[in-house]
Amino acid sequence: MKFGPVPVEAALGLIAAHTIKAGGATLRKGRTILAETVAGLEAEGVRDLVAVALEPGDVGEDAAAETLARHLAG
Asked: Which of 5, 27, 60, 62 could bridge to 20 as Cys pair (CB 3.0-4.6 Å)?
């Protein structure tokens, strides 16, 4: 897993590491960054954001939480 700041224009397909509010829009932590998200952030003057890039073998946060919950529930 790669985690850190990236230019908005390079964030397409990555996962937002933190919630970002820009103008009237909110990009929530854990959401995949889509083309329209990039365009909206750029329009609001956002240049960089902190994002996560999963690497082969990594498990996303939601999938990991679901697996853990199933195991704990028995």
From this structure: 27
Q: Considering its fold, how many domains does the chain have in total?
A: 1
Chain centroid to Cα 16, Å, comes to 2
Residue 13, CA atoms < 13 Å, CB-side half-sphere: 4
Q: Model pTM?
A: 0.83
Q: What is the CATH number of the domain that holds 12?
A: 3.90.105.10
Task: Evaluate whether 41 touches 27 at the Cβ level (below 8 Å).
Answer: yes
pLDDT in tens, 9-50: 999 999 999 999 988 888 999 999 999 999 999 999 999 999
